[in-house]
Amino acid sequence: MSRKKVLVWEEDLDERSFIGTFLTQEFTSPALSTLVLLGGGNIKKSEKKEALVDKAITLFELGQLTSDQILLSYVKASRMWLSFKMGSYSSLPRRGDAVSLLKGFGSSGWHGPIKDEEGFAYYIRTQKIMEPLEIDNESEAVIRKRHYRWPVVAKISQEWMSLSWYGFSYSDTASKRANQFPFWLYIHDIFDELESMTEATLVFPDLYQLVLGKLWNKYLNDPLYSAGHDWEHLRIKAEASGVELNEKSYDGHIEVDLKGLKALTKHLATSAIEALEIQDVSSDHDIVENALLKTIIHDWGTKAYEFSLERKEDDLSQRVKKFKAYCNFGLRPELKNEDALLHLKCYSEYGNSNGALEFLLEELAT
């Protein structure tokens, strides 16, 4: 199993071993350090994760570190994958006891709510996932497969609801490759369950228009913002639309590193400006270049787009990381693949799901 934050089911795992596995797999070292300090423990500089887990378990057994503290730290953590909807709810019904998730694998379903000091409510939706069975070619015996507990955390406010999670992959002996767990087949249903449970009315935001319309025009074309920010085009996923490209993915789509395309549009912009004999090149070049790039991206039928945005400080050598994500716009809801779901792959150095959600909500509100 590749590196991930999901629990693997094991028989006869005692409570102490289980919570140790939970803390090890689902918490980072900084988060564990915070838990130890919350419980009144001491930590050493550069203490190893295993030692932090042991201290947290001991504090938990002594009652100095509570289940509520562990669960609140867990649900508030930032994750790699994010999806969100806009709208309001009417109720926050009680579901399964979230404390039980610290002590055993449990069954699939909703747990919570868990509330924080800022007024947000959280639920944990767990799903028991079993790897596909394999047959030993020689003995024809069924090979026992692992079970995973896949958790999705719902964060709820009166204006929006988000789901965040980690993906995982499992090995396929027949093809000798790792298969990604198809989370996009589950998230729509989880949102439906959440809406029904909380009596909410929710809609996906128009992420395509937000990113390739509003944000593009603001941070690339508006001098008030563009001068103080660095926007880097990273890659797109698109359907070939009258444009022949060399590399295609397994599903017939293409993923393009935008660095080469950026160089091309820069050259085209220079040629266009020279042909029109525009004198003040510096003021127009970036606008023309960005317009060309945006046109090409739109014409390719872009399904997903990755970019990063950093704010320049007064000391121009310094940068504040504002946003970086691979944005899948969910433009093909009728399909049974990633294109059917609006979601983002987030990056830890930019705050993962929490950082991405905060940035996008602020931009939607302005």
What does this structure look like?
- The protein is an alpha+beta fold.
- It is built from 10 helices and 16 strands.
- Mean pLDDT is 83; it is low at 241-252.
- The chain has 2 domains: 7-203, no CATH class; 207-365, no CATH class.
- It has helices spanning 15-26, 29-38, 49-61, 67-76, 184-198, 207-221, 223-226, 258-275, 281-299, 352-365, and strands at residues 7-8, 81-88, 109-115, 121-130, 134-135, 142-143, 147-156, 160-165, 169-172, 177-180, 201-203, 229-238, 254-257, 302-312, 319-329, 342-346.
- Strands 1, 2, 3, 4, 7, 8, 11, 12, 13, 14, 15 and 16 form a 12-stranded antiparallel beta sheet that branches.
What is the topology?
Blueprint: E1 7-8, H1 15-26, H2 29-38, H3 49-61, H4 67-76, E2 81-88, E3 109-115, E4 121-130, E5 134-135, E6 142-143, E7 147-156, E8 160-165, E9 169-172, E10 177-180, H5 184-198, E11 201-203, H6 207-221, H7 223-226, E12 229-238, E13 254-257, H8 258-275, H9 281-299, E14 302-312, E15 319-329, E16 342-346, H10 352-365
Antiparallel strand pairs: 1-7, 2-8, 2-11, 2-16, 3-4, 4-7, 5-6, 7-8, 9-10, 12-13, 12-14, 14-15, 15-16
Index terms:
single chain; 366 residues; alpha+beta; two-stranded antiparallel sheet; 10 helices; 16 strands
Structure in a nutshell:
This protein is an alpha+beta fold and 366 residues long. The protein has 2 domains: 7-203, no CATH class; 207-365, no CATH class. Helix content is 36%, strand content 27%.
